[in-house]
Amino acid sequence: MLNSATKKTFALMHSERLSAKDNMRIDKGLFEGFKPSDIPIFRVYEWEASFTYGVSQNEDSVKNLKNLKSFKENYAQRITGGGILFHGNDISYALIIPTSYVENLSVKESYALICSFLIEFYTHFGLKPMFAKELENIELSQSKFCQEGFEPYDIVIDGKKIGGNAQRRSKESIFQHGSICIDNSTDSMGYSLEDLGVKISSKEARALLIESFSKTFHVLFEEKRQDIHHAS
Question: Taking CA 1 as the corner, what is the angle to CA 13 and CA 102, rounded to the nearest 5 degrees?
Fold first, then answer.
């Protein structure tokens, strides 16, 4: 089980700043190529200024929206659900594990479990993160834009939604990815760590995210080489 105290080995993958299409091609390739016998994967990556949209959204309905035209062709569809999410001042993670790691847990329970390492991450800064479903003053809703709606397990700090996470499943594996906004240097239509009084570089944030995952789930990492041209 993912939350057991037993030490586990994961492959750690790093990506630098890539286009939306490259990042989503890698995520899709990792999910589709994963076998239950494989070492689970934790990937940390960054973006060029771009946006992604959910698997249930239509490309034609999003690419010509007024505030998206400046991104030109730097956008891509995710393999997960949710709304439009802006990138460029955020770090992201992708996690691929066999379904046995969350055996006997419902989809919602597994989502809460996986997101617990993000609670650890934000708590490090003295912040008080909570899931949206735990707050009476938050109305759960969906939106065309990821940062405008609240799903039950969205992370909320001081009444503000920060980041976004989404999950995809097959019979053999679970894939989850998400983003954490570092600063407000671009119009991300969301709140960042900087907005919450936290000044941190993307390099420092990446290191802390890896540390938080390792601490939460008792994980030892093995570095894994990545070739973006063979991850699809």
Answer: 85
